[in-house]
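Q: My collaborator sent me two sequences in one message, no labels, and asked for predicted structures for both. Can we handle them in order? The first one she listed is below.
A: Yes, handling them in the order given. First sequence, followed by its structure tokens:
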Amino acid sequence: MIINISENDFRGVDLNLIVTLMVLLRERSVTRAAERLHLGQPAVSGALARLRSLFCDELLVRTGTGMLPTPRALELERQVGQALSDMHVALFQPPSFDPLTESRTLTIGMPDWVDTWLLPALLAALSHKAPNVRVRVLETDPYTVSDMLAKEEIELAIGAFDQGPPWQRRVALASMTFRCVGRPELIGSGGKMTLEQYIALPHLLVSHRGAFEGRVDKALATLGLSRNVVHTSPHFSSLPRVLQRVDAVAAVPGGLAPLWEKDFGLLSAAIPLELPTIEIAVVSHATRDKDMFVQWVCDIVREIAPRLATGAPDARLKLSEENVQK
């Protein structure tokens, strides 16, 4: 392979400067970048001055709310960031890996309902296939996932996430519908409800932003209808115990319904509305494209999630038994 480079072009370039630039662009703050690089703030400020001279551009412009990158800086982040990622893989990552001997900490982001729905089967698989790997789970949601990936707070995330920035890789896993969950006497015999019965009941709503309206309310509004939302929470985890004690129902991802029926004695029914399905995906940063372990974990998730999404009550047990056998 002939590498076409001009040696003279690199005389004024210090690789450490480029690393500093990437961290500055990620953190948008000299102070935070200095902390991540374990350097003093004056050293990072000096590096930024050298970078501005090198590229004949301000790169980061101070505003009232922080530092904003210039168009030139964003282009450097896109092109040079990928090159640095490839260099890191070439220099520090072994050409192959064995899950059985891999020893590292994996950080995954997921909403709390995905934690309940998918994490037990995923941890069961990893505990047998990669026993030396530690798993750290951090809570994320559609509003924070891209920022957490960009800041390397998480290595991948699993949840109902839309398409993000160009660097965000997204692979669809499964889809599911919402179901109405509540005590059996509220849902009715046979687990069937009419629209009139549904909107007559008080409702509990999970909202990451504390809103009292969600996708159900939008669907009702198109019919000139509304419901009475009496409580909102950012977490699904508290809802089943609330539903046991409160005369109300909640719309939850279909994968949770059989678990809550089994563990909390609740009952679920199809929501008598046309609602969009929940599209579950695994997302990661483009810099993880050549991280063989992260990609291997994504493959495990792609195997597990569609089977759990069927909602079969014993799917989790079967998956755990199969992972033990493997």
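Q: And the one she listed second?
A: Here it is, processed independently of the first:
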Amino acid sequence: MTPTVREFRPADAKAVADLRRAALPYLLSTPQGIAWDVAHAPAAQCLRLFVAELDGRIVGAVRSALLYDSSLPGQSAATPQVHPEHRGRGVGSALLAAAEAHLSEAGATHLYAWAVDEPGSLAFAERRGYRRARPARFLRLDLRSAGLPPLPSPLPPGVRLCTGADFGADPRPLFEADAEATADEPGEVACDAMAYEDWLLHTWEHPDIDWNLSSVVTVNGDIASYTLAEVDGLGRYSTGMTGTRRAFRGRGLARLAKTDSLRRARDADCTAAFTGNDATNAPMLAINRAFGYRPFGAEWRCVRELSRDRDRDRR
């Protein structure tokens, strides 16, 4: 049976969240988060979420969007996710074709997609013209048995621990720290054009981020390091981002922020913590392994040049 590909509808949110958890168990996904992303997508993102149906059941989905928060124009992303029980039936191919057509029409020149680090997924990407760019590692920590380190007492002079919620009256300093750290993340496309208004909508107000579990380290009143906590209401916690401003790096402040956030998560009855890192990010991988995180998944970021396809079609 040929899958039917159509636009996402708000009523699909739970089915898409369930599908994503089944396909990629190391990534958090909630119905409210999916619905929020679609409903509040900025026009410049050109976001479209497609779903694939077989026998009236959603068995695949792909989120296709321009990387509008990068200063490099023409960059885009789309990764098909197919339920494990329905792979090999053309679902991924149909979803990727829909995403590629949309993004090409939106003016994308390069499309980045993630492929699970296993032969079938990598072969699927290569057959469709995608080349491997860089690897990522996903880790899991059992919070029920983890021997989390204690917080230092007292804290170093001038150092203070806060929650993200403490910045509710004025979140701009947190935005500035996040923008600086995110711009330095390893990757082919830098997220270096983040606007405050977009950050408020897609980070500060996002329903999956728990600001009471997010930790912020200040030094003499200035934000130095932070970790953003995402939760799914099912006992799962994920590090959305951990970053340290350039002037404060090399002082162990990221470790302090993560220690505080993980301890808060455990006290809030979270049972499993997840995180993902670029495979070249040795400092962050070392920090996570020291906490007791263990490998749980791996992916490759792959890229295809859509501009070449358009040039070929014109000839």
